[in-house]
């Protein structure tokens, strides 16, 4: 008998896997915080004998190298990947023993990257699971534009051929177990966010398997959205070989130090929920909710290498955020503090605050003739589906560099649900602007009577 355990990394929209038999196992595309993988192996009572990477990742820092070092496992990396460390180069058709009657077969599936490799878990030679990495996803495929712009169309065509190869070689009942596609920006579309699938299911629903190549490539390339800026650093880090992760608690800072760091231009990040932040916070701090996607959006926006100080309500929230940030290469906060704004602001200083509102409030403000400045911080692809008449479009990940484009006046900032609007409101508030954070679902804009426009 074999097992496959899934390790979710929800903040990044990724999954890793531990698969094996009674005594030994393989880890596929492990996360940076490998203690999760080791704990799962311990619960299973198995020894990790192989660690397999489907590709050199562009969206997170891998834990594969360190996991292989600690366990003595063979580190399988596609032969075409240029890396600076010792590994077992894997080529199409290679077999790796996992446990008695269990083997891992490498299948070359270029497209997401030129060297991308899927792995088929075989029991007594019979395929029982396919670890498809960033090639065949649930309801879609991995994006082909993360390596080099000049290769994008060529890789898109290779992606089409790769998913067709997997569909042709594997039986309909074989589970499809991708690394990306659960909210990851490595996915080529939002359609690839389902919870599970099989080869047969993908044959009936996946555009990569339903469209002929030219139509597939045209639609795929037209649908590609912004790439998080920190992706530019992930590939080189993974190719060099990441350092072991350090999750020890950061040094604690008092109100005086927090003030000094803000004055020096460093980033102070408040991890509390957006409601609490709006009600009172350290002037100049940015709000990245620990319950949102702090790793993705903080890493996307912060100048790479700039020191960051974390503020949290609890030690648990601080540790959680620190763990998430290490996954994208923000390894050590400069400092941290646990408590409330009263602990972070000098005595006698009032906390900063701003208003929260709904789309109905915005509509009412317009009816009163207040002429509020409306800033839409959604991504380009979201904006293309429609927008509020008269709104200015500044995606949240660009806002801090484009503050001079925000018109004068009170700024009402919105996204699709409220989280990104809270980030944007904190950035505008830190810049000294009067801001109102619209904490509402975008569907409520039409219900409130706001005039919406579309490109058609």
Describe the structure.
With 456 residues, the protein is of the alpha/beta class. It folds into three domains: 3-240, Metallo-beta-lactamase, Chain A (4-Layer Sandwich), CATH 3.60.15; 255-344, Oxidized Rhodanese, domain 1; 355-453, Rhodanese-like domain (Oxidized Rhodanese, domain 1). It has helices at residues 35-44, 64-71, 152-169, 199-205, 207-210, 213-222, 231-240, 255-263, 274-279, 294-301, 315-326, 341-344, 359-367, 380-383, 396-399, 419-430, 443-447, and strands spanning 3-9, 14-20, 24-28, 47-52, 74-78, 88-90, 95-99, 102-108, 117-123, 126-133, 176-178, 267-270, 286-287, 308-312, 335-338, 355-357, 373-376, 387-388, 392-393, 411-414, 435-438, 452-453. It has a six-stranded mixed beta sheet with strand order 1-2-3-4-5-6, with helices on one face. The protein has a five-stranded mixed beta sheet with strand order 7-8-9-10-11, with no helix packed on it. The longest helix has 18 residues, at 152-169. The protein is globular and about 70 Å long. It starts with a strand and ends with a strand. Mean pLDDT is 95; it is low at 191-195.
């Amino acid at each position: 008998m074999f097992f496959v355990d899934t390790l979710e990394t929800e903040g990044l929209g990724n999954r890793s896997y531990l698969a094996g038999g009674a005594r030994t196992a393989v880890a596929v595309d492990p996360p940076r915080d490998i203690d999760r993988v080791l704990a799962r192996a311990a619960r299973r009572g198995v020894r990790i004998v192989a660690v397999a990477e489907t590709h050199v990742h562009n969206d997170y820092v891998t834990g594969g190298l360190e996991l292989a070092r600690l366990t003595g496992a063979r580190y399988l990396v596609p032969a075409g990947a240029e890396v600076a460390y010792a590994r077992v180069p894997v080529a199409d058709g290679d077999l790796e023993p996992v446990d008695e009657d269990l083997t891992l077969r490498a299948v070359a599936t270029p497209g997401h990257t030129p060297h991308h490799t899927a792995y088929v878990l075989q029991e007594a030679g019979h395929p029982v699971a396919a670890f498809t990495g960033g090639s065949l996803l649930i309801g879609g495929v991995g994006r082909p534009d993360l390596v080099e712009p000049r290769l994008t169309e060529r890789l898109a065509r290779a992606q089409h051929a790769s998913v067709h190869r997997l569909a042709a070689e594997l039986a309909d009942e074989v589970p499809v177990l991708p690394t990306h596609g659960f909210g990851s920006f490595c996915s080529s579309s939002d359609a690839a966010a389902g919870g599970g699938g099989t080869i047969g299911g993908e044959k009936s629903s996946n555009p990569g398997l339903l469209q002929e190549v030219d139509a597939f490539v045209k639609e795929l390339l037209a649908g590609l959205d912004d790439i998080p800026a920190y992706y530019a650093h992930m590939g080189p880090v993974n190719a060099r070989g990441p350092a072991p992760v350090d999750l020890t608690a950061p040094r604690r800072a008092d109100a005086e130090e927090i003030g000094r760091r803000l004055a020096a231009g460093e980033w102070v990040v408040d991890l509390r929920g957006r409601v609490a932040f709006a009600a009172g916070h350290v002037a100049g701090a940015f709000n990245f909710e620990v319950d949102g996607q702090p790793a993705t959006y903080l890493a996307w926006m912060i100048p790479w290498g700039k020191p960051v100080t974390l503020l949290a309500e609890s030690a648990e929230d601080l540790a959680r955020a620190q763990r998430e940030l290490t996954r994208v290469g923000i390894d050590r906060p400069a400092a941290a503090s646990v408590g409330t704004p009263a602990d972070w602001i000098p005595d006698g200083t009032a906390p900063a605050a701003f208003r929260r509102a709904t789309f109905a409030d915005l509509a009412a403000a317009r009816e009163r003739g207040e002429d509020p400045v409306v800033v839409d911080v959604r991504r380009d692809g979201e904006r293309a589906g429609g927008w509020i008449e008269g709104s200015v479009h500044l995606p949240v990940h660009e806002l801090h560099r484009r503050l001079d484009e925000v018109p004068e006046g009170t700024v009402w900032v919105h996204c699709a649900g409220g989280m990104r609007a809270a980030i944007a409101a904190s950035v505008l508030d830190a810049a000294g602007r009067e801001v109102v954070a619209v904490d509402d679902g975008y569907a409520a804009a039409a219900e409130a009577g706001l005039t919406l426009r579309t490109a058609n």
